[in-house]
Amino acid sequence: MHAGSAGGLREGKGTSFEGGQRVPCMVKWPGRIPAGVINNKLASTIDFFPTFAEILDVPLPDRKIDGVSILELWENVPNANPRETFNYYYQKNSLEAVRKGNWKLVFPHVHRTYGLSSPGKKGVNGETRQVATAMALYDLRRDPGERYDVQQENPQIVAELSALANEVREDMGDDLMNIAGKNRREPGRIETTKQ
Q: C-alpha distances in angstroms, 11 versus 56, 95, 154?
């Protein structure tokens, strides 16, 4: 990969592994957000819309919003944890993993890998290859690089996250399992008129 390094995290952009998902976010708002605070709680860019709506005191639409307000994280409110779970959808609508707290259950899927090729150089990306991965459970607190599958030692966590995934699939669908989902919404479109 020529676009940078994911450090010790697994894989890179274009994957649902942590190297393709984790990015730093810096927020500055003097007088409202304390300076110099590092927060490692789970958050996503889909949380910005409801956060800005809360800041502006604007009601959210009646329809379901995927994100949650993370203003309490920005303000460093003690014990704030607005997002306990996250669903790793990729491709068109493939549920490749679910996370609850520090536990991440990855489902079998095909993904690109950067690890089997030479890195890019002179402004040209390195090659990627498609590989299959099996189901695996990772404890991201101890193993952010997703190297050690601990599902055998934690069958109760696998069962809990599998049940969570089934609820998500019923709601939003999953192309990997050919499940349509009851509440899957068509993407918004902007129609243009020819003049």
A: 37, 18, 24
In CATH, the architecture of 84-185 is 2-Layer Sandwich (3.30)
Q: How confident is the model at residue 99 (pLDDT cuts 50, 70, 90)?
A: very high
**Both tokens assigned to 59:** 């009601």
Sorted by where each begins, the domain ranges of the chain are 84-185
Q: Write out the two tokens for 8.
A: 């010790």
Q: Which long-range contacts (CB under 8 A, 24 or more apart) does 15-22 make?
A: 15/90, 15/111, 15/112, 15/113, 16/88, 16/89, 16/90, 16/96, 16/97, 16/106, 16/109, 16/111, 17/106, 17/111, 17/146, 18/140, 18/144, 18/145, 18/146, 21/88, 22/144
Does residue 1 register a pLDDT over 60? no
Model confidence at 155, in pLDDT bands (50, 70, 90)?
Answer: very high
Give 26-57 pLDDT, tens digit per residue: 999 999 999 999 998 999 999 999 999 999 99
pTM for this predicted structure: 0.86
| Cα–Cα distance for residue pair 189/195, rounded to 1 Å | 19
Q: How far apart are the first and last CA of the chain?
A: 43
CA distance linking residue 106 with residue 77, whole number of Å: 31
Six token digits for residue 41: 């709680």
